[in-house]
Amino acid sequence: MADFKVGDIVILKSGSQPMTVEESIGDKVFCVWSHSKKIEKKSFSAGALKSVNDPCVCPTAKRAGYSGSVCFEVEAGRGQEDDAPE
């Protein structure tokens, strides 16, 4: 299980927009993100998340020097205004 810290940028393993870790207590990770100019918050199991700094998120963009969050948005064909994670 990953050890997420406050400020880490994460996505759901099943796919989502990037979210910021607000707090992590045991297996519960509290995340925050923006959607339609509103701040959204939700907790997730640590096992459902992965860091955008994880090279598995997008190895092609990593080699090109892009950050994980930029890579994710490009791969998904969407930006920060997408639907909030389920």
The secondary structure category is alpha+beta
**What gyration radius follows from the Cα positions, in whole Å?**
12 Å
% residues in beta strands: 25-35%
Average pLDDT figure: 74
- The topology string of helices and strands comes to EEEEEHH
What is the β-strand count?
5
Question: What does this molecule look like?
Answer:
- By secondary structure, this protein is of the alpha+beta class.
- Helix content is 17%, strand content 35%.
- Strands 4-3-2-1-5 form a five-stranded antiparallel sheet, with no helix packed on it.
- The longest helix is centred in the C-terminal third of the chain and has 9 residues.
Q: Quick recap of the structure?
A:
The protein has about 90 residues and is an alpha+beta fold. It contains two helices and five strands.
Topology record:
Elements: E1 9-12, E2 19-25, E3 28-35, E4 38-45, E5 49-51, H1 59-64, H2 68-76
Antiparallel strand pairs: 1-2, 1-5, 2-3, 3-4
Descriptive key words:
single chain; 86 residues; alpha+beta; five-stranded antiparallel sheet; 2 helices; 5 strands; 35% strand; globular; disordered C terminus
